[in-house]
Amino acid sequence: PFQKHYLGRIVRADPWAVIRRQKPQHALIDQACSIGHSMSKRRPTGLTAEQTASVASDPRVRRLTTQMRKLRPGSEQHKKTHRELRSLKQKLKRELKQKIRDDWTDEQAVDDIERQLQGIGFAKPLVDHAVRPRRPAQKLLVDALTAPVDDTLDGQYRRRDDAIEAIVAYCNVEEGPTVRRTNIPSTTVSRESLHEPSEDNPLFLATMSVFIDKPEQRPRRCFLCIGAALRLPLDDPSVEDKIQEFYTPGDLSKHFRRRHLSQLRDNDQSVCQVCDMTLLHKMHLQRHAISIHGTVS
């Protein structure tokens, strides 16, 4: 009943039991009110380009923008004004997004009822073409976590168990960090298993960019991530993410320590796919990173 009559999450009573003078199902109501069943795929999740641009028309934003242009770049006052402007824009965006969501919440119930009375069904959720299509494991995970709410406790338990199983299955999917390698043979990995992109391919250019000619050179791409990209199909959407440049060499060093070194024990072996070389232990990887690829750890 709570699903069919728009029971809000703040309602902690069982109105159906009250009407029928039955014993309230407190456990069921607690389950229903704790999982956010009012969430919908049609609910706005972000601002459009036009809505984001509208923030710049705020008088306070205009005033700070004009004030910052008059200041000398690099000065303390310029930095302070820039921080204030950035904070103000973020605040206005949050407020605008919340207002849009609140307006949608107030209107969607009435709109749904009117559409049902007209026999045209619910409005379809908007498709975000900027989002890449999900892979099978990710799709299974999302479907399990967003499964429809059941109106029984047993159904809720099944929903919970399915979500746990989907999360466990997704743990084997590599999203970015390298997988810990503990029993890698000392022989080098065959180059035949790697892709050989053409010279005008972004992956080839990224691979060439992680080699240094002088000790003081500091590339801004991660050679281990590029090595992982070499083992993926060239049309894999994650290749683009793995070959992206970091903003500074320092950012690359942080990434290297957090995403790669932290996954290895001192005696763990690893492989540099870019060089087709087995690295015998953690220190060997660090020496290789600085001497061949200019990555400081």
Structure description:
- Residues 272-293 form the C2H2-type domain.
- The structure is a single chain.
- A hairpin with a 4-residue loop joins strand 1 and strand 2 (277-279).
- This protein has three domains: 1-118, no CATH class; 136-172, no CATH class; 202-293, no CATH class.
- It starts with 14 loop residues before the first helix and ends in a 5-residue tail after the last helix.
- The longest helix has 43 residues, at 76-118.
- By secondary structure, it is mainly alpha-helical.
- It has twelve helices and two strands; from the N terminus they run H-H-H-H-H-H-H-H-H-H-H-E-E-H.
- A two-stranded antiparallel ribbon has the order 1-2.
- The model is unreliable at 5-9 and 176-195 (pLDDT under 50).
* Spatial strand order of the main sheet: 1-2
Report mean pLDDT, rounded to a whole number: 76
Shape: extended
- Could you say how many structural domains there are in total? 3
Backbone structural class: mainly alpha
Q: H/E order of the elements?
A: HHHHHHHHHHHEEH
Largest sheet: 2 strands, antiparallel
Strand content: under 5%
Helix content: 40-55%
| Counted beta strands | 2
The parts where pLDDT drops under 50 for at least 5 residues are 5-9, 176-195
The radius of gyration over CA amounts to 27 Å
Q: What's the oligomerization state?
A: single chain
N-to-C span: 58 Å
Counted by DSSP, the helix tally is 12
Protein name: C2H2-type domain-containing protein
Keywords: Coiled coil
